[in-house]
Write a structure and sequence with these properties.
By secondary structure, the protein is α+β, with helices and mostly antiparallel strands. It is built from seven helices and nine strands, in the order H-H-H-E-E-H-E-E-H-E-E-H-E-E-E-H. The protein has a single domain (57-242), classed as Oxidoreductase, molybdopterin-binding domain (Sulfite Oxidase, Chain A, domain 2). Residues 1-27 have low confidence and may be disordered. The structure holds ligand MTE and molybdenum atom (MO).
């Protein structure tokens, strides 16, 4: 990483240190340590303001994995999901609720009628495998605008129809990811309806984060001000169960 002295000066200056004409100071070992901290701080601050908006890499159709594997729940055993599936998801609805002015209940047809985004991206599971697939679905941002997201909303909680060990899966993201252009609710994988193993009828793709954030079998999106009152309080199934990081940026 190359950072010029002006920027180092700025970063350290913000921390209360004055660095003017610091060529000589620069050579003192204690100062070199400080400067390293400065670089780290600068790096962190930079990530906070700009990297979160960056796009995930998109691939060409030929780069898609021959098989897009599945992980976690592959077939929800909950009676509710099974009834929906038997009826071809005709009476399934995605509820958008919580801190919104206009709660919504969207059918698959509603979601397909919205402007669609297609993206070929790589899914990275924390267990060490990846797969590249093409996702098609509506962006989350216009749905949130239609629902009238309130000013006190800070996070979105994604509720799922499946349960693992009796506990239903859920995940959450902040508003930077919610409004990211590649954050979509796909109903199709590789131009076919989303397979059951991959989250039928609808899942989340939040492309700047690891696999466990990509909630499958969606039933609802809830806008909340805080995560500590939801379920185990850590913002997601694996966050609550196994101490996974809430922010799983890649
Ligand atoms: N509802 C639900 N969503 C889920 C899971 C799950 O078990 N249930 N597993 C997660 C994990 S760990 C991964 S890697 C991906 C797997 O997605 P895939 O089955 O389409 O490969 O889904 C994530 N979303
Ligand atoms: Mo995963």
């Amino acid at each position: 990483m190359t950072i010029d002295l002006t920027r180092r000066g700025l970063v350290l200056g913000a921390g209360g240190l004055l660095l003017a004409g610091c060529d000589r100071l620069n050579e003192a070992p204690a100062f070199r340590e400080l400067l390293k901290t400065g670089e780290r701080l600068n790096f962190t601050a930079h990530r906070a303001v700009s990297d979160r908006q960056a796009l995930a890499r998109e691939f060409s159709p030929a780069e898609r994995s021959p098989v897009f594997r599945s992980n976690g729940t592959r077939l929800p055993m909950t009676p509710q999901w099974q009834r929906w599936e038997e009826a071809g998801f005709a009476d399934w609805r995605l509820r958008v609720f919580g801190l919104v002015d206009r709660p919504l209940a969207l059918s698959l047809a509603d979601l397909r009628r919205l402007p669609q985004r297609e993206q070929i991206t790589r899914h990275d599971c924390v267990e060490g495998w990846s797969a590249i697939g093409k996702w098609t679905g509506a962006r989350l941002a216009p749905i949130l605008r239609a629902a009238g997201l309130r000013g006190d909303a800070r996070y979105l909680v994604f509720h799922c129809a499946d349960a693992i060990g009796g506990r239903s899966y859920y995940e959450s993201i902040d508003l930077i990811d919610a409004f990211h252009p590649q954050t979509i609710l796909p109903h199709a994988l590789n131009d076919a309806p989303l397979p059951v193993a991959n989250g039928a009828p609808l899942r989340l793709r939040v492309e700047r984060q690891l696999g466990y954030k990509q909630a499958k079998y969606l039933t609802g999106v809830e806008a909340v001000a805080r995560l500590d009152g939801i379920r185990g309080g850590k913002g997601g199934f694996w966050e609550d169960q196994a101490g996974y990081e809430w922010y799983a940026g890649i």
